[in-house]
Design a protein that fits this description.
Layout (H helix, E strand, L loop, with lengths): L2 E6 L3 H12 L4 E7 L3 H8 L3 E2 L3 H6 L5 E4 L6 H10 L4 E3 L7 H14 L4 E3 L7 H11 L6 E9 L9 H20 L3 E8 L6 E7 L4 E7 L7 E8 L2 E4 L8 E3 L2 E3 L6 H4 L1 H15 L9 H20 L3 E2 L11
Parallel strand pairs: 1-2, 1-4, 2-3, 4-5, 5-6, 7-10
Antiparallel strand pairs: 7-11, 8-9, 8-15, 9-10, 11-12, 13-14
Helix pairs in contact: 1-2, 4-5, 5-10, 6-7, 7-10
């Protein structure tokens, strides 16, 4: 049976999720959408239902599962409503706009007694990151000691602050670093360039591994995400982000996409397929509500470290048995 999915919020991300559901997701179909902007909703619905509000969408008998891709501030409330009605959710990152609010979703899910929330940390479905994790787990580089992450955007608006780069971009590095290493983060130090761009964030894990991350929002040449994991016996890194090498005007090399949509298109598609399988009765493979809470909690404490410029101990509690 095909899973009926509806999308709340059809901007850049939601329109892409709706398209992936319509065109590239076996086992599911798009029932309809809701967006505060009716014209956007109609465009993304592509002939399916445009719901008048998010609550009628969530409650509809035709909707088995929901993708939440509206603005951050709406995520926690919508996720809790879906939990109340027992419907699976793929919620875009971040799970909530604060750690305390994210924890309310975790608590609602535990009280409900069944895992219903997956957070859209889609890098876990990127083939390169999956290969890095496989190599580490197979002992291919020996004991990991260092993870270098690079997250560069072509450009950000002038009003974009260092705090925004932490809550929008660095949250991805938090989630992928915990997932790649299978480690929890215990401390953080941060250095900031002029106007807080770039940021250099160094975390340490409970096992003593060092996680260094460059966040540079105005790197100009393109959108570039890179990671290299260093072990006692070798290293493993992401390959170039393009399938081809271009030679022109006496120089040659790879090309970089303008933003995250083309770079992670394959990961978004694979995330959707896996989520549909899990929502149809399979096993969840993506980031849980707990992982979503941890990313938000660490991001909040890194933001405080940006203000104080002090080395800070990270505290976010222990994983509940429900998420083992
Ligand atoms: P966007 O601004 O392009 O789209 C947001 C849409 O939500 C707009 O169409 C707007 O009209 C609609 N909207 C506003 N208030 C609403 C409400 N109360 N209910 C329903 N719809 C409402 O933003 P974008 O870039 O699509 O981001 C959406 C979410 O996806 C954000 O939470 C963002 O953090 C996340 N995101 C995730 C990425 C990833 O790689 N996983 C990348 C970029 C964004």
């Amino acid at each position: 049976m095909s899973l009926g999915v509806a999308v709340i919020g059809t901007g850049v991300m939601g329109a892409e999720h709706a398209r992936v559901l319509r065109e590239e997701t076996p086992g599911a179909h798009l029932v309809g959408v809701y967006d505060a902007d009716a014209a956007r909703a109609r465009a993304a619905a592509a002939g399916t239902v445009v719901f008048p509000d998010p609550h009628s969408l969530i409650a509809s008998d035709r909707v088995d599962a929901i993708v939440v891709s509206s603005p951050d501030a709406t995520h926690a409330t919508l996720s809790r409503t879906c939990i109340e009605l027992g419907k699976p959710v793929l919620c875009e990152k971040p799970l909530a706009s604060s750690a305390a609010e994210a924890l309310t979703v975790v608590e609602a899910e535990i009280a409900h007694g069944r895992r219903l929330i997956q957070v859209g940390y889609m890098r876990r479905f990127d083939r390169g990151y999956q290969e890095m994790k496989r190599v580490r787990e197979a002992g291919g580089i020996g004991q990991p000691v260092l993870l270098h992450n690079i997250h560069r955007n072509a450009r950000a608006p002038e009003w974009f602050t260092g705090q925004m780069s932490i809550t929008n971009s660095f949250v991805h590095e938090i989630d992928i670093s915990r997932w790649l290493l299978g480690s929890e983060m215990t401390s953080v130090q941060i250095a900031a360039g002029p106007n807080e761009d770039p940021l250099m964030i160094t975390m340490q894990t409970e096992k003593g591994e060092i996680v260094s991350t460059e966040i540079f929002m105005n790197a100009t040449y393109g959108y570039h995400v890179h990671a290299e994991l260093i072990g006692r016996e070798g290293t493993v890194a992401l390959g170039p982000p393009s399938f081809t090498i271009t030679n022109r005007n006496g120089a040659g090399g790879v090309s970089y996409p303008e933003n995250w949509v083309p770079r992670f298109q394959d990961a978004y598609r694979r995330q959707m397929s896996q989520w549909v399988k899990a929502a149809s009765g399979g096993t969840a493979t993506g980031a849980s509500a707990w992982d979503g809470y941890v990313a938000s909690a660490i991001a909040e404490q890194v933001t405080e470290a940006l203000v104080s410029r002090r080395a800070t101990t990270l505290n976010y509690g222990r994983r509940p048995a429900f998420y083992a």
